[in-house]
User: Fold these one by one.
Assistant:
Number 1:
Amino acid sequence: MENIDYLKKQLSIMINLFETKRFNELINKGIVLKKKFPDQAIFYNLIALAYNATDRGTDAKKILVEILKKQPKNITVLNNLGLASIQCGDSEEAERYYNRALNLKPDFPSALINLGNLKTNQHKSEEAKECFLKALKIDNELIPAKISLAGYYEQLGKFEESKKLYKEIIKIDPNYTLADKSLSLIHRYNLGDDHIKTMEEKLAKNIDEDGAQKLNFALGKAYEDIGDYEKSFKFYETGNKLYKKNIVYDAKIDVEYFEKIKDFFKNNNINPLNDYGQKMIFVVGMPRSGTTLTEQILSSHKDVYGAGELSFLKDAIQKKLLSENGELNLNTEDLDKEILKEIKDYYLERIKIYKNEKIYLTDKAPLNFKWIGFIMAIFPNSKIIHCTRDPMDICWSNYKNTFTSKSMNYTYDFKDLANFYKTYDDLMKFWIKKFDKNIFNMVYENLIINKELEIKKILKFCELAWDDNCLNFHKNKRSVSTASLAQIRQPLYNSSVQKWKSFSKDLMVLKKQLNN
């Protein structure tokens, strides 16, 4: 009895550490407890979830495999091994773990939802939908299943179905503010909108910090819609300050990182691999520069498959070239043909999940601009489209959105934003000078002014014949998961050009920092 009470107390402490995001404390405490209670899977699971939350998927897998040897039919361990495998970039292994759990318990909601999310990322929309609906048959008020199903509809441009689900979630749990935030992004607000009132009422109550972050961004979007830019900015500013409190970002690290890449390629010529494998189009640039729009146009072409934002290139490069302390190892000995081939093979193996039979496949991870030197060595027959836009519009759009990736931690502060933009711009100027014939600059404003002419230029650069479908990109039914998913379902409009000027009074600090 004493042991049970002790276990309950320790478990309560660990859950509290997880909920308050004190992950390192949880890991240290959990390691001690699992030694004391080596058969208590709950400790292994919590440690693994904390490892996952701190981008240590490999450590999470190790500790879960340890308990799985003792408890091979533990469905929670199998499910968490799926999550850890996703963290490690291995979706095929994750799928095997989820299916093992579901073979043992077909009505296991967590595994169904996680498998559905994996299928969504693989563009297997109908399989994803089936998983979410199965989970909802088990429990019709299961919020994780509803939020995933809403995201599925959203990515396909079925916004009315998404809105309905988000409203159902808010009714079930008014404090589940992710639903408010998600709803705000696909809803057009008018003066007196009931949702604005309910969000302000929630914010006025003693809501937790995470909820306050999301509501501030949602209200910023709402007041921007109705044209109250002063109020909108205050909400965006508060939301960013709340996010900034809980993240770690040092601009010097990015500056040094980019300089290291630039210096290496300035002083070394890397012999490219022989052309083989899938023909690629890499769409790169600052986030919110038009990368999603560009991919949507290209993927409307009969010979192009739009794979979306892929992490595979970053994963492969970091797996092969990052030291244990996170330093980028760049020297000609390390970057030999064997390493380049391993990176390419890793990438090509991962994209097999899309079963693409078209001539080109697009990868539109914007931050791949860092890796252009590597792309030209690994995929010398690829096309690189660099999306550019007014720097103020880019930075403002970054500031008023939130991102799950830690690589976007520079977006919550004007100074960080300006520093990152200038560092990116410097690296891109270097790449363009070095690989001028291999990079096409897609200027967002030019596309808005003369859509047909700019699309013809893009297709010519990609050696693609004209396809009328590219003009009607907004009718493309493919799944899109980025912050631009609502905009690309509409024809081109010019209201997004110099949109920052509506907030110019509050953005002079940003403008000054960009110009310094």
Note: The chain has a mean pLDDT of 90.
Number 2:
Amino acid sequence: MFDVLTFLWNFLREHGIDAVGCIVVITLIFCGCLLAKEYGKDFFRRLLFRRNLPYLIILLISSVLIMLAVYKKWISIGWTILILAVYILYAVSVFRSMYKKTWLIERFAKRVEPMLESGHFMDCSELLEKRPWYLLDFDEQLEFKLLKASYFRGLGSYNKAYEIYHSIDLKCLYPEEVMKVVTAEVYTLVQLGNIRKACEVADREMQSDSVAYGALRSWLSELSGDMKDAYTRAVKAEDSIPRGYRDHQSLYNLHQQMARIYHMQDNLSEAKTYYSLAYDESKYLTDISALSGLYENYIKVLRRLEPGGSLEKRLLQSYAQLAKRGGVNNVIGYFNFVLHLTREEGNRQKIYDCIITTYQTVHAMLKAPEQYMVEVSALGVLNSESFDPSEILHDIRNHFDDYFRAPMPMRINLLQNLVLPSALPEKELPMFMEWGERLAGYGATQAKDDLDTYEQTLPADSVNERCWINDQRIDFERRSKHDYNGEYVLRLLQDNIRTYVSHSDLLHAANEEVRLINTLFELVELGQVPDNANTKARIIQIHNSAMQHIDGMSILNTLDTRVELAYYALLLGRRPVAVQLMQPIIALKIPLAPNQMRSLEVGEHLKFVCEELEITLRQ
């Protein structure tokens, strides 16, 4: 090595290059050799890839100009060093962009991503209105589009998100980026209820990567209810893993999918094996929130195979540490899971301690006004378990007046969810009676103005928030009196349906149509809507529309909607329609929970329908 350095030094000096120039040339040569050794053909393929070609040309021209400046001594040593520093900074940024985000988009993403992850979509709406002027190159524009698509998904405008994913030119992407964009596009199509098109996109764009493609298509088959095909595709993908395959995200997805399939088949030993493989791959991933499902499912399997084992305890500790790194939402998810495990043990004191520990931990992580939501949520959890809420009431008492000044929509959520506890100490009853009067007064007077004002601030594509506002209006109207304004409620529900349909979110539209049918039956009982043939025809028309909206969608995603529609089909005397709705559920042997059977009478009719189609429902 020393001989090589000496030779290069002497050769350059003999050709009139000064010491600084020699150092620059030798450094560039050795950097190139190290990069070639580290990345080999993959590095040069990326460097010469079409979108990097302009930057490569700039680098080469800059190198020639710097060498000439040094050789001809056009500029002083001080200026030479400054130019070299800028040049090296630019060169590093170009090389870095081949594997990571550029510094500019990374800085921009650090401002936007926390807002998206925490659900504060309104806070980042102005940042995403248009692309900032300094995000100029292809990498930055790509990352900006992905951020904006995530924003639209958060708003509930899935068709806008799909349009962004669909507009990206996949020919200009590296293979791992193709997988990232296509997967996001497929997920968005699933949210839109278009499983058929999601399969077509995966088939068209991802077959070159057998592992990523197999995992994704297996998941789509699972959603469609074809578990045999889901298993076959996953096994085929596993058998086709190339030697030296390094895409940890795809391996994680495939192992996770295999584990879940075996888990659903109750083959716990195989499920454990694949959860372990997925866990090994998860150490290379950075999206902490996406790993919670792995930890929870893995621990559930271990609790059945090896109750109280050391591996289960280590995983719980690892999950806790991971959640802390991921922020408050991940911490809440972790504690909810721990509460689920504690409830399975049936020890009420442990359940109470877990709820209080969760509350104290999360409450300390937040500041006002976010703390207020934790207070009300904890009160609701204690109420559901019939526990004494005194531990929480102190904080609620101190902040109660602030609830009415909290920002929207938090204000509505706080005041809607603050309910009278079932195990309220007698001494606290007068305080809650006073609170109840203030809450009722707010609902009767100020709530409407707050909702109207908030609606005016929303972006046009804010689907979820606009429908949420109508839901609150309905709730306030129904709470106000027994004989509520039925036509007003029907109009709001129809507005929601139109909003969802206009944004291609047909599953939510179908669910709103189910609510509309339920409301019409209720209004018939109240005498606000006549019980005649016209009303029945109106309900049947809505019922047909809901069925049309879920046609071709995933059976698993539409399970509750299908059962509800089958329930109303029987009420309407449309037994063949009920059979049509239940048949795919029965064919897949999907068990129904007791609450899905609704009333005893109609539940029994559904049971008879199921028996005729040769299924036994676990109730």
Note: Residues 511 and 561 are 6 Å apart (CA to CA).
Number 3:
Amino acid sequence: MRPFLDLLASNPLILLFAVAAVGVPIGKLRAGGATLGFSAVLFAGMGFGMWDPRLRIPDHITNLGLAIFLYCLGIASAPGFFAAFKGGSALRQNLLAAGALLIGAVVCVLLGRVAGLSALQTAGLFSGAGTNASSLAAAFDQARAVHAPGQLGDAAVAYALSFPAGILMPMVVFFAMQRWFKVDLQKEAAALPGYRAPGEALEVWTFRVINESAVGLTKREILAKTQVLAAMGRILRKAVYLVPTAKTRLELNDLVVFIGAQADLQCLEAFLGERSPHEIHRRGLEAFEDFGLFVSNAALIGRPLRELKLPSRHEAIISRVRRGDQNLVPHGEMRLELGDRVWVIAHRESRKVLSAIFGDSYRASSEGDFLAFSLGLAAGLLLGLVPIRLPGNLTFHLGISGGALLMGLLLGRFTRIGSWVFSMPFATSVVLRQLGLVVFFAGAGTAAGASLPRIPLSTLLLFLALGALLTAISSFLVLWWGYRRMKLSLNTLGGLLAGTQTQSSLLDFATKQSGNELPAHSYAVVYPLATVLKIVLAQVLLVRFL
């Protein structure tokens, strides 16, 4: 056994994948309907670290995984993040996260005083229960000015011992609240306005226009009046097939095709008149064809569909878009991503031209721009090094995690700068995020596990208990107040809690439970503010309240 341990200790890359090989299968096990997912790699790493303290993955490898994961998450979540600000949802979510963190800081101060903890131990408890290494580093920087350097280890011990509770307790509270509220996450997501579950099929219905209120309206006017999300297909008018443009107006007795979710199509049926048994999308194929094309032309990325002017230039329309496992209804403001597959209705002879427009290369659609990826990630890491000054002579840094995520959000918002495309194909983004998670969890786990055997049992139990209590209070506050008072969905609150905790393992857990991307969206919305607040509050705990 000793030679094997020597091998792992001297080869961190072998250790990394050994930890992953143990943790990933454990993460797939289900208990009470819940799984740990990739977060099980963290606990596998802790086991390796406790087995032999030499089994520790270097910090630079751990930080690389964290940076890749959060940068890719920022790129992927940017559209939803900035769209949420327009509707006011992001502001409400950030207020909830900020309120929970402020109350958590006050509770931490009270617990620290009751337990007789030092200022550094309390700051370490706050950082560990909040699973945020950046706030611990900020506390170190602040403590060097007011405390003896030899006492900095107190904060590190408190952080290491409360950290496991900061990971596990939110999962326990989330699972318990889901049972208490009796929420089926999949059914709840399906009932949310505008949400389409991954893999949900779009339906194609043909309508006959018999209501006078619909006559003379364009496609945009119809969708505005009905407030549905649907795409208009072909029109059959007096035995002639038409491809509708922005200026095409419906006439009485037109047969018109719409593609969308069943509930939206039922609304259109009531508005237009009736559903016709004559399914014209299956007829007239001698003139039109419905074919799928891969989006691999980088020139299209970041541009709204309306700029392509397919109906007027090529007598073609996009009926639906498939992104990953999700079917999307196209609209004029939709922006395509590399790897999307679009279904186009057009004349058969137009296929060659349209293939050239979209690229239609599966290989090219799977390739990312790694020059843009490298530049963007480097910019994020540099952003994390920039000192930010606050009133009271406080200085903090966003760090690796905050800088990478913020830069990802910014670049994901603009999508491209000149010829550099910062968005990534869906499959590429998922793989990079998973790789980053596994690397980060393995490194963080081995680092935490190595220090645990040297800690007295009484101290271990104290910090575990305080960390669990502090995290349970803040988690309960976020979930109960958000669900009961703010009427947010539990799907959204799972990601919001993960963002408040700045904990990617909790995000992975919530995503596994929900089976959709809603937790990732709310995570990206609150994570930047939560990170900054934790960095500031950890320093404030040292300077002002203790």
Note: The chain has a mean pLDDT of 80.
Number 4:
Amino acid sequence: VLNSDQISVDNVHSIEDGLISLKTRLESNNAKMFSGLPNLLLEYRSNLASARMALFLLSTQAMIFILYTLVLIAALLLERSQSEIATLASRGASSLRITMTFAIEVLPLALLAGAFLGPLLARAALEVWSWASSESISFGFHLESYLLALAGAILGWLAVVIPAYPAARHSMLEWQRQVARPSKSTWWQRIYLDFCLLVVGVILYWQLSTSGSFVIRRFGDSNLSDPILLHTPTIIIIAIALLFLRIFPYILRLFSWLTKTNRGIVIPLGLARLARNPVRPSRVILLISLAAALTLFARAFSDSLTKSQIELAHYRAGADLRFETNNPDIEAIAALPGVETATPVFRGLLQRTDGVGINVIAIDTESFPLVARYPGGMSSVSISAIARVINFDPSLLENLPAERSDNNPYINPESVENALPVIFSHKALPPGVEIGESLNLYYFGNHVPVEVRGIIADFPTENGSFIIIDQNALKTILDINSHRFSYGWEAWINTDSSAQFSLAGNPKLEDIIMADASMELRALRRDALTKGATRAFGLNALILTVLSLTGFVLVTYFTAQKRTYEFGILRANGISTGQLLRLLATEGFLIMFLGLISGTILGYFLATIMRPYLTQAIARDLPGTTTYQVWLNIPEMTLLYLILIVFYTLAILLLLSTLMRVGIHKTLRLGDE
């Protein structure tokens, strides 16, 4: 009996070491200790490392987005205070002194918000999540949690302070020149940071493709994840997003050129303003693009994991329900209420000439594809294709070709006439035999000539040494209804979703149920670490959505404050409220949709290139986390995007309400100041 109060995440390693040490000391005194606990703890630590790898990836992605948002807000605040900073710089204050003054002001806020309030807000968020999802979550903040919170606070402080240094280097004259002639490119474009990131990302991706996994080879007694390779796709996505911003000014110039002939003043004015200073809107586009890309990535993986678990449970069970029966007559089971499709499946055992046993799965080629299926993306072939390949017509028995070979010991050239079409698994295929060749299998001395029509790796309920054959074909060679095969028949059924539970709980059927897809699904979802890894993706999508909305609102608000002088002059020159609304709508929605479109493409690309490596890394230890293809829940993604669009629109309206309160008298007063 394990006491969960005695064994925890913090002391699991020390307890494991203590047990191993105890076993060694006992053996030195001619005593033996029998316990599965050390292996259990070792397996647990291995699974925990895999789960933490996914959490580390998601946390880093969220942190990158937060740091960029802080840098953007800090840049906007510094632009608003640029005249004061330029005055200090012109009067002899060094860049370092100005930066240190700014850093000292921000440091207490960073430590208070990040190191102290951060863990408290995290616990409150988990409480709300637990209540909203109706799932009990055990809370525990350990030393590393507070260290991570402190590291996040320091990184956030640096993200706010670092932009102050280049801003402090501009004198009053340089600042006025910059305002008069805004730069067409950002500093990272001038040093080609985007190209450098892309080159680094491609090199790391090549290394990742070569190694095939994020996991470092065996080190000590556990596998470790390589944090550099783990973030390779994220680096590539950021690089591509930055490269897209190089094209953005040309898109704005194209739109501005196309609207030159427009009779109105609003749309040409808005697009001309964006084209004249593309740096400012490009930063907002990057914010929206990163938010959409990372949110879609997390949401796509969450939906894909959920769907994969359902399909994997069905694949393991073979069908919704699988029954044991004594004969192929399954009409009684097919007639049960709620049964939609039922198919008989025969299982037997044959041998190769070298004595190796091969499991036989004989299916009804017409009804079996209606019941069984592969998880999406697991196999390049389908159950329907397999059924077509092995479909057997007894009238063609005498015309089936028989390949002969005098050099292969597994093939008897004298007894492979009228071979039956079968599909072999990789493990069942004799060495040297290829598709199109025929060979003999044996059952109690009886020859069973078969022709290799295909080779597969897995099949529902099977992944070892097996062959797939048509029941009608097998009946031409063997009497599969004899007493020797009295327990070789199964009934695979698909049910109505509302009737599956009642059928599984029917007392008359309990003794013959071999597999239940719903129970397989519950078993996959019961694992705590698997549940945590799966839940992490959905929770991260929610976190990024909230952060995206918060960041966009803050950026929009600070942008509105910076444009008060501009809008005061426009209103003084007779621009109406409706025209101002169209002006802001033209700018805001263009930026929003460009960001969402680019982010959607990047997010799906990120999930696609990430899937095989992330799946391979965590599915090795966590059951039920195998994802064979990226799947998007279109209704939920549409709802998520509608929420983003609605809140982005509210942020634009906030900008409008702020600017509409700016009158000419306030503008003149600001000008005097």
Note: The first strand starts at residue 215 and ends at 219.
